[in-house]
Write a structure and sequence with these properties.
Low-confidence stretches: none
Strand order of the largest sheet: 1-3-2
Largest sheet: 3 strands, antiparallel
Radius of gyration: 25 Å
Shape: extended
């Protein structure tokens, strides 16, 4: 009796145009074992990928963890996350391979510059002209929403 079984797997591809050649190359890489999971990994997967390499970690607060993870994924950093519940607010330890420290440094620099830019923008007072422009935009948005609602009710009444 033969072993009849089915194996199902998911394959995610990001491309501008999916052609047969792109799909073939991705499938060949997958079957050859060249594809590995990247980004957020478990500790076991991360230590397996590191092999004899050293693992390092940084601490990130609960308020900033999501923003930092988006930047880390952008730079293809493999990491694992451990939550330290003893601190208040919770602190997360982002563990990564030492060989990827340069990628993580670039990701951390971008993250820090984004946060500093947000702080500087929030500290700037608005000028009178800017406030008037924002008020006009909000007023125009309200009018367009009001007109859209009127159109919807008219269409409903016409169909009845």
């Amino acid at each position: 009796m033969e072993n009849d079984f089915k194996k199902v797997f998911d394959l995610v591809i990001q491309t501008h145009k999916l052609t047969g050649e792109v799909l073939r190359n991705v499938m060949q890489d997958f079957l050859a074992g060249k594809s590995e999971k990247t980004g957020n990994l478990t500790m076991r997967q991360l230590s397996r990928q590191a092999g004899n390499g050293k693992l390092d970690s940084i601490a990130v607060t609960e308020n900033n963890i999501q923003d930092f993870l988006q930047v880390a994924k952008k730079y293809d950093v493999n990491f694992a996350i451990k939550r330290d519940k003893a601190t208040n607010p919770s602190t997360y330890h982002v563990i990564f391979q030492s060989s990827q420290a340069e990628h993580l440094n670039r990701a951390f620099q971008e993250y820090a510059s984004q946060k500093l830019g947000q702080l500087e923008q929030s500290k700037k007072p608005y000028s009178r002209e800017k406030l008037q422009e924002m008020a006009r935009e909000i007023a125009n948005q309200d009018r367009t929403l009001h007109h859209k609602e009127k159109d919807k009710t008219r269409k409903r009444e016409e169909t009845r």
